[in-house]
């Protein structure tokens, strides 16, 4: 298991990119993840990334998160080789997940989220990278 990225909930990806382009030269990739109702910008920093997430719909859990807790740290993500196996192993230990099965993430990845109630309050994403 490797650290993959930190997810940050923001109101405007564009605004964050304007700020962070002044902080350093990051390789930036942008996309939209319809299943999460989110616009995503990924700033690569070495082997890990910062992921800015902007809600594309007011009824998304991301929009609700920003309304209730403001912009800021949303989740941390670990990379795994086999998400279904890792999820099954962790479920067997009593960990709870948001989705029954992994869902489509950005750039062809498969993701699932561990419920904050079983991880000490922090949303933890498990991600199996795609080929993109
Ligand atoms: Co993420």
**Percent of residues in β-strands:** 35-45%
Number of strands: 8
The CATH architecture: Roll
Small molecules (ligands, ions, cofactors) in the structure: cobalt (II) ion
Strands of the biggest beta sheet: in what spatial order?
A: 2-3-4-1-5-8-7-6
Low-confidence stretches: none
Mean pLDDT: 95
Termini gap:
20 Å
Write down the CATH class: Alpha Beta
In one word, what is the shape? globular
Please count the helical segments.
3
| Helix content estimate | 10-25%
Pattern of helices and strands? EHEEEHEHEEE
Radius of gyration: 14 Å
Using the coordinates shown, work out and report the CATH topology: 2,3-Dihydroxybiphenyl 1,2-Dioxygenase, domain 1
Number of domains: 1
Could you provide a short overview of the structure?
With 132 residues, this protein is α+β, with helices and mostly antiparallel strands.
């Amino acid at each position: 298991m490797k650290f993959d990225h930190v997810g940050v909930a923001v109101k405007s990806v564009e605004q964050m990119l304007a700020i962070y382009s002044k902080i350093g030269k990051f390789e930036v990739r942008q996309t939209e993840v319809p299943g999460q109702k989110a616009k995503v910008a990924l700033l690569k920093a070495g082997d890990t990334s910062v992921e800015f997430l902007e809600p594309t719909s007011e009824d998304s859990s991301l929009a609700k998160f920003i309304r209730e807790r403001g912009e800021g740290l949303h989740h941390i993500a670990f990379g795994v080789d086999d998400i279904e196996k890792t999820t099954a192993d962790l479920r067997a230990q009593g960990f709870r997940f948001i989705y029954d099965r992994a869902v489509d993430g950005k750039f062809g990845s498969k993701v699932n989220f561990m419920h904050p109630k079983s991880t000490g309050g922090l949303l933890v994403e498990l991600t199996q990278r795609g080929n993109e």
